[in-house]
Amino acid sequence: MSHFEFQPTPIEKHKGLSLELGCNLFIKRDDLFTIAGGGSKARMLQYILYDAVVKKADYILTAGGPYSNFNRALALMCGILNLKMRLVIYDKNKHIGKVSLNKRICDLCEVEYVHCEPDEVKEVLEKQSEILEQLGHRVYYIWGGGKSPQGVQAYFDCIEEIATQIDFQPDIIFVPLGTGTTFSGLMLGSSTYFPNCQVKGISVARDFDTAAPVVNQIINEFQNHFTHSHIEYNLANNIVDSYTLGGYGCSSNQLDIFLKTLALRYGLILDNIYVGKALFGLYQMVKEDKSYEGKNILFINTGGIYNF
Fold first, then answer.
1. Reported pTM
2. Residue-range domain boundaries for the chain
């Protein structure tokens, strides 16, 4: 299901944090995914773009903000596959207020932009699709952030990859939770390969009541498309919304100190939007709850250094 060749991303035991936390903390380095700047979005897109190529698309149409890891990975992969990319771009996170390396990479890849307000996205996408089709192009639309059954499949298969790399059973898998695609794939894959493992998504933006219906929709759509059996789950045990810190791109003095400490003590450089915020949540949870002591914990570094 991919037109790209890639190597499994490494899993490393972090001895320093393991000692601090009293557990065995392993990190899956999907930030080192070998295509398009790495990260979870690149892993998903190899599956999504396979479908686009099979359907003989020549234009990719999507929407998103200037800080999007997804847009950057998509721009680079479209270049490899000789596909044009048109991005309906909007910014509902103006509070971030910084230059985005992701946006600069999209510029470098000659992405075509159509600017709009956040409440105009659906209407503008429909219009752009119509314009491109009238010009004779075969348009393939990708939901912003890669939310799709193919994206879920990528992280279902990532669990299979993990199973071939380790000689232990993880007790808990932690992952940053944004739109929920990566989280959903990990949870579904774990039910097959690590049935006794709990997957916890540390939400970086949404509270539980907002995130849970989206995740339910993603899981149900995937199972209806690709599987005949449905897993039983209770998202109240899987989604953690205690570390959103006010929403997407919002930080706190405590998070800033934590990330600085990681850099000084361990040489770890993490963004404060996705991975750094999620690892901060993991750290606080394990520190405060003795039930994690001695557990095998796997953290998925989904990338995002371009937002540092």
1. 0.93
2. 11-33+147-307, 40-145
